[in-house]
Specification:
By secondary structure, the chain is of the alpha+beta class. The chain is 39% helix and 20% strand. The chain has a 4-stranded antiparallel sheet with strand order 2-3-1-4. It is globular and about 35 Å long. The protein binds adenosine-3',5'-cyclic-monophosphate. The site of adenosine-3',5'-cyclic-monophosphate (CMP) has 9 residues, from helix 4.
Length: 140
Amino acid sequence: MAVERTLSIIKPDATTRNLTGKINAKFEEAGLRIVAQKRMKLTKEQAGVFYAVHKERPFYDELCGFMASAPVVVQVLEGEDAIARNRDVMGATNPAEAAEGTIRAEFAQSVGENSVHGSDAPETAKNEIAFFFSELEIVG
Ligand code: CMP
């Protein structure tokens, strides 16, 4: 296993319910270190660029509107096997299918308002981290 970095977003449904600390505790309990973090309010256009891979999907407009509806907390998580580990901690995209104890099982409200995003592969992680952070802002 290698030490990796992954991009995490705590989504508007979670920031508005004041769940940032509870979600961060889940990452830290799983051995992930928060090596960069900032709270931002995305525009719908910025959300659209970030999620461009989904632009042909029927939920794209709803997804971008939701991501711009309230603040998000963007983060870089670091640790052994961080990309897969974070996906384990998040649980399945649809909270109805998420394993007990995962962030989405405990906090997500629906498949759209599912509290967190995490990169799905090393190349995606690299690009998603660079979308939000400069190297100077990441302190391991
Ligand atoms: P995320 O991991 O951020 O990646 C893409 C997002 O699209 C996903 O989490 C969901 O929040 C969202 N999404 C996926 N399927 C649907 C759907 N059927 N309706 C609304 N949003 C969806």
